[in-house]
Amino acid sequence: MTNKEYSKMTKQASPGSKVLLNCFNAFWVGGLICLLGEGLSELYTYYGLSQLTAASAVSISLITLSIILTALGWYQKIAKFAGAGTLVPITGFANAMSSPAIEFKTEGQVLGTGAKLFSIAGPVIVYGLVSAFLYGLIYQIVTMF
Amino acid sequence: MAKRIGQYTIELDRMPGIIGYGTAVGKKEGEGPIADEFDNIFEDTTMGLKSWEEAESALMTSAINSALTKAKITASDADGLFSGDLLDQSIATTFGVKDFALPHIGLFGACSTMALSLSLASLMVDSGAMNCAIAATSSHFCSAERQFRFPLEYGGKRTPTSQWTVTGSGAVVVKAGGGAPFIKRVTLGKIVDFDVTDANNMGAAMAPAAADTLSGFLKDTNTKPEDYDAIFTGDLGQVGSTLLKQLMTEKGYTLDENYNDCGLMIFDMSDSDVAAGGSGCGCSASVLCAHILKRIQSGEYQKVLFCATGALMSPTSSQQGKSIPGVAHLVEIVHNKG
After folding, report:
1. Chain pair A-B, CB pairs under 8 angstroms
2. Residue of B141, B157, B269 to mutate, testing the A interface (most A Cβ within 10 Å of its Cβ)
3. Residue B148 contacts A where some CB pair is shorter than 8 Å
4. What are phi and psi for residue B22, nearest 5 degrees?
5. What's the domain count of chain A?
6. Which residues in chain B touch residue A89, judged by CB atoms under 8 angstroms apart?
7. ipTM exceeding cut-off 0.85 for this assembly
8. Which of A14, B96, B152, B195 has its CA 20 to 30 A from that of B179?
9. Is residue B121 over pLDDT 80?
10. A95 vs B contacts (CB less than 8 Å)
């Protein structure tokens, strides 16, 4: 049997993910998180924050909430159900930072929590910055003419 | 003295006996279908210790202590200890067995280590180099997750082909002239690589190795699967055991009702977390030492093939784009010497 034949056999024997259901759950849970953000934004502007400050306050609130849920072990339970719905919003990023921080505290403050803090979210920061730089460069060139 | 039959199978002349076996498992395993058969179930999977690694070591210590108690011996009565686990540099083993102060042979065969350690311990006893030897392995869901996948608190979705690492340990005491069960024959397996790269489908990575070792054993001994009361693979799970049956059919053997996989026996399979079944060194070890050996000892099973399977995966090689080779080792365990 060749590797290719075995790969075909494996594909047939392996149950696939329930893509439609997963997408649906990701959509409504993700949407709910965004709705919460929107609600908080309205609330903060109602109490006198400017649009810009309110946006920052919303981010801070969602990150704090996500870290609290992560520490309680609840975020993972919601994510098991919602998949990308909890991964894509800012709450997913906060979870990706705080979960290794909690997990690796047994290796100490420096080499554990400190070093491993960026083990999942690090690449997002690196490539986020690279993308932002490239976008800025293109924007600059385009607006020159 | 052991002698080679066929290509890779070794027959043990003196047929060492298993005089004691013990298990220690975590909470989830303690809620599964064979929960009643484990010696110790620890509701707190940290075992009250500081790290998951320490907890895994404690599981192994507990399993070995149970096995020694049942064998009615103390550690100093044994001549050597063969053990391994899944963690880097086998740290769960090191810290789990060091206080027994026995000559130690540390092994790595991924999830196949129980069959590997039992094979080597039995061969050592059969050769007369040791009179009594201990074989043990362990795995812990939490220590494995943080090494091979993501932190526990990280929010991710598991694929339907993924498997759940068993939190558990099993230990066996083998002795020359001991009573039933007896070790009759062993086949140490080759590394088989069918270029599977999906770390979430370990069953598929291991099935070809299981088929290779199992068919090799049947050919060497000129027997058929139906000649045995039961055939158990280690942790192929749903996908791997389906593939094994297909691969065996292609080799001219039918795996029927007498075949089962430890990964399908340890957990309640309706639990969606478990997905395709249990895995890890502790999976085959705890099912062997809780469920299988008991039935061979009582005579319910006369002849059993125990074929533990291992996916030789490392996060480093996987990230470098390498495949996940598999390996499987087989031990034939019988009720009667005749």
Report:
1. 93
2. B157
3. no
4. -140, 160
5. 1
6. none
7. yes
8. B96
9. yes
10. 153-155
Cβ burial of B72 (10 Å; 0-12, 13-18, 19+) is exposed
Cross-chain Cβ contact A106/B50 below 8 Å: yes
**Contact between A95 and B155 using a beta-carbon 8 Å cutoff:** yes
Residue B179 has pLDDT above 90, yes or no: no
Q: How far apart are CA B97 and CA B95, in angstroms?
A: 6
Chain A residues touching residue B194 (CB < 8 angstroms): 1, 3, 6-7
The minimal CB distance from A102 to the residues B151, B195, B201 is found for B151
Note whether A13 contacts B243, CB cutoff 8 Å. Answer: yes
Is the Cβ of B208 closer than 8 Å to some Cβ of chain A? yes
B121 plus B169 within the same structural domain: yes
pLDDT per position as a tens digit, B29-42: 999 999 999 999 99
What's the confidence (pLDDT) of residue B188?
98
pTM of the model as a whole: 0.94
Q: Are residues B171 and B186 in the same domain?
A: no
**Two tokens, residue B80:** 């050597």
CA distances from B327 to A54, B83, B86, B310 (A): 57, 17, 14, 5
Do you find a cis peptide bond into B181, omega within 30 degrees of 0?
yes
We report the CATH number of the domain holding residue B293 as: 3.40.47.40
Question: Do B306 and B331 touch, CB atoms closer than 8 A?
Answer: yes
CB atoms within 10 A of CB A112: 17
Domain that holds residue A32: 20-103
Number of domains composing chain B: 2
Query: What residues of B are in contact with residue A7 (Cβ under 8 Å)?
Result: 194-196
Give the C-alpha separation, B233 to B94, whole Å. Answer: 26
Q: Residue B81: name the closest of B184, B176, B172, B194 by CA.
A: B172
- Tell me whether residue A36 is in a domain: yes
Minimal C-alpha gap between A70 and chain B (Å)? 6
| Closest-CA residue to B3 (of B123, B162, B97) | B123
Q: Is B197 on the interface with A (CB under 8 A)?
A: no
- Domain termination residue (choose one: B112, B141, B175): B175
Q: Is the pLDDT of residue B272 over 90?
A: no
Would you call B155 and A79 a contact, using CB atoms and an 8 Å cutoff?
A: yes
Q: Are residues B167 and B91 in the same domain?
A: yes
Residue B253 domain boundaries:
182-334
Which residue in the set B154, B160, B195 is minimally distant from A17, CB to CB?
Answer: B160
Contact B312, B108 (CB under 8 A): no
- Take residue A138 and report the two structure tokens written for it: 């293109």
